[in-house]
Design a protein that fits this description.
The structure is a single chain. With about 100 residues, the chain is an alpha+beta fold. The chain has one domain (about 25-103). It has 4 helices and 4 strands; from the N terminus they run ββαβααβα. The strands form 2 sheets. The chain has a two-stranded antiparallel sheet. A two-stranded parallel sheet has the order 3-4. About 0% of the residues are buried.
Amino acid sequence: MQDIDGKTIYSDILEIADPTHTALVAWHVQKMLVDFIFNKEEFMKNINLLIESTRKCKIPVFFYFIEILPPKFESATRLPAYNKMFAKMQLHMPAKKRNVSCS
């Protein structure tokens, strides 16, 4: 552990993952996306084990979702960057529906 300009910088895994200042952020784990990964069963098993272990250690778990804008409101510079799969999914996605694959 180091102190740089009054800020604590943790250097090893035990310091970094100390439950007194750590949280788990499950980012973009939505059924709509998880259904498309090649190792879905393994992924679900591992993420649920991770979340369960995190909660047992009394570490907070936060679920973060990205809200995709309908194409008519999306930036013209970002639209070409979407690949065909995500563009197609976006067009068929119900408004405000969020399916979380794990809890």
